[in-house]
Amino acid sequence: MASLKEFFSEKKIPYTLFGLALVTHLIVFYTLLYLYGPCSFFLSNDCALSGNDTQHYVIDAYNLTHGHGYSRFVNPPYEPDALRTPLLPLYFATFTFIGGYSLIWLAILLLNIFLSIAPAVLYKLSRLFLPHGYALVAGLMLVLEPLYLYRSQIAEPDALLVLLLLSVLYFLVRSWKEKRSRNLYIAAVLIGVATLAKPTMEYLVAIICIFEAVFLAFVAKEGAYERLKKSAAAVAIVFVIVSPWLIRNKIVFGITALSSIQGYNLYEYYTVHEKLPDEQIPASLESESREPDRFLPLQKYFTGVALARIRAHPFMYLKEQTIGSLRNLFVSDIADMYYYGQTKLLPFAYNPESKTNPYGIVPKILWMGLLALVYALALIGWISAWRDRIALLTFTLFFLLFGYLVLASGPYVDAKYRLPALPLLFIMALYGLERIRERYALPLRQK
Q1: What is the distance, to the nearest Å, from the Cα of residue 107 to the centroid of all Cα atoms in its chain?
Q2: Least buried of 92, 317, 383, 423, by fewest C-beta within 10 Å?
Q3: Residue 233 CA from chain centroid, whole number
Q4: What is the pLDDT of residue 382?
Q5: Res 445: pLDDT
Q6: End-to-end Cα, the chain, rounded Å
């Protein structure tokens, strides 16, 4: 019989991390199912559909499989949807076709098994820069990450984006370290899939492409022409995967765009406190859609209004963006459970809006201190990587991905926005910790 130590050996640790992650995921899954019922996975504890944002993905799937087209609306008219990208609705469609909304719990259960791979992928990515022990710690941190565990139960793509982004970066960095084309092409496939999972990926892809160009120009050892051909092929792969959705939007709405979410967020959330005097949506636009500010053909108008708000109140906008971004750096990982009405998952009473709740100020300070320590160690790790060009390039990419996700969330404070890139900082923080250990611990051992 294998010893416990063997399960944590480098050869078997990916399987061990997957097993541990699966156990923790299933504990949260069955707890949520027991406490709130089978519809709680799309925020319907009483199984009634309100059409809230979290329910859009399952409603899209249900309508698609029941003759109403790809629409996020519960009742007619079933207006075509371009707010939500199609990966998750297409996955849910099999279950809604067979059993309607009543089988979504099974879809989430199977998705939990898939999402349990993420800690193993994080270990493999970490292992490109860290010793086995440190990479193991990174994987275990994601196994126990409360927001990842909770978001894995919700019928939204946030947890899926964590796994996909980690996988993209693992194969991308391997393509930088090795000359095999396969790694770059696998990364391209995953980028295409991730883009269809959540529109946020559209901007992360732009950042990744810039770093691929930097690698080509300053780091790549193979012939620039050969690598450029591979990069062009990777871009083509991404386009092939995403293009059916873009073509669909062009046919249905007359616009080649991924989603209407960007303009909607800028108008409805990021500039809502900077409204212009006498601002009013024209009646002609109101009649074009049930939700004009989410209607893809009208995004040019609403984006223009949002930009006019920013020009009229630049300092107010900058202040709200700055404060929101700082809050997003330190907001609690468990706040979503409160705002989604599912705090029974927690072993203690929790109310982030109460000044007298048992959660208290001390745990908040400890949580902020823990995150501040991770950020500080990550910064040390980034600075320490200057001797290794690929490590420095990779960690700079990690920092910019994390920074973009924090800044892009703006004044809308929610830890889910930083979640996809937070594991990347785990790697950098542990790299920094290892450099500190080498700097101060080794001389002591020599004495």
Answers
A1: 19
A2: 383
A3: 26
A4: 97
A5: 40
A6: 41
Q: Which residue has the tokens 């012939």?
A: 223
Closest Cα to residue 21, out of 170, 138, 169? 138
Closest CA to 381 of 88, 18, 126: 126
Q: Which residue has the higher pLDDT, 84 or 279?
A: 84
Query: Contacts from 388-397 at CB under 8 Å and sequence distance 24+?
Result: 389/218, 389/219, 390/173, 390/176, 390/177, 390/219, 391/129, 391/431, 393/176, 393/211, 393/214, 393/215, 393/219, 394/129, 394/169, 394/173, 394/176, 395/428, 395/431, 396/211, 397/169, 397/207, 397/208, 397/211
Q: pTM for the whole thing?
A: 0.95
CB-hemisphere CA count at 13 Å for 439?
9
Q: Which residues contact 72 (CB under 8 A, 6 or more apart)?
A: 51, 56, 59, 60, 63, 81, 83, 84
Question: Tens digits of per-residue pLDDT, 342-359?
Answer: 999 998 888 887 666 555
- Integer-rounded Cα Rg, in Å, for the chain is 23
Residue 199, preceding bond cis, omega within 30 degrees? no
* pLDDT score at 411: 87
Per-residue 3-state assignment (H helix, E strand, C coil) for the chain: CCCHHHHCCCCCHHHHHHHHHHHHHHHHHHHHHHHHCCCHHHCCCCCCCCCCHHHHHHHHHHHHHCCCCCCCCCCCCCCCCCCCCCHHHHHHHHHHHHHHHHHHHHHHHHHHHHHCCHHHHHHHHHHCCCCHHHHHHHHHHHHCCHHHHHHCCCCCCHHHHHHHHHHHHHHHHHHHHCCCHHHHHHHHHHHHHHHHHCCCHHHHHHHHHHHHHHHHHHHCCCCHHHHHHHHHHHHHHHHHHHHHHHHHHHHHHCCCCCCCHHHHHHHHHHCHHHCCCCCCCCHHHHCCCCCHHHCHHHHHHHHHHHHHHHHHCHHHHHHHHHHHHHHHHHCCCCHHHHHCCCHHHCCCCCCCCCCCCCCCHHHHHHHHHHHHHHHHHHHHHHHHHHHCHHHHHHHHHHHHHHHHHHHHCCCCCCHHHCHHHHHHHHHHHHHHHHHHHHHHHHHHHHC
d(CA 117, CA 124): 11
Q: Model confidence at 441, in pLDDT bands (50, 70, 90)?
A: low
